[in-house]
Amino acid sequence: MSEDLHEGDRVEWNSHGGKSSAKGKAHGEVVEKITSERTIKGHTAKATEDEPQFVVRSDNGGEAAHKPEALHEES
Asked: Sign of the CA dihedral 18, 37, 30, 67?
């Protein structure tokens, strides 16, 4: 997935196996694009202008930052 995601876009990504993930996939919605370092739930997303990340809210309500290449349009 490219860096042209926008707030509200539906995406999926490989999951480590949370309760809501089926077959290793998690689903959610892009909340925002970040271009500076930010801490989310105790983890630091080292986003920059050259390497942005996206804050995604999963369908189970959790939020995390992901690199663009980890996200795919929901199928």
From this structure: negative
Residue 3: per-residue pLDDT: 66
User: Is 15 a member of any domain?
Assistant: yes
Domain membership of residue 51 (yes or no) is yes
Report the alpha-carbon angle 63-16-45, nearest 5.
40
The answer as to whether 65 is a domain residue is yes
The tally of domains found in the chain comes to 1
| Single-letter amino acid code for the residue at 75 | S
Q: pTM for this structure?
A: 0.85
Say what the pLDDT of residue 53 is: 97
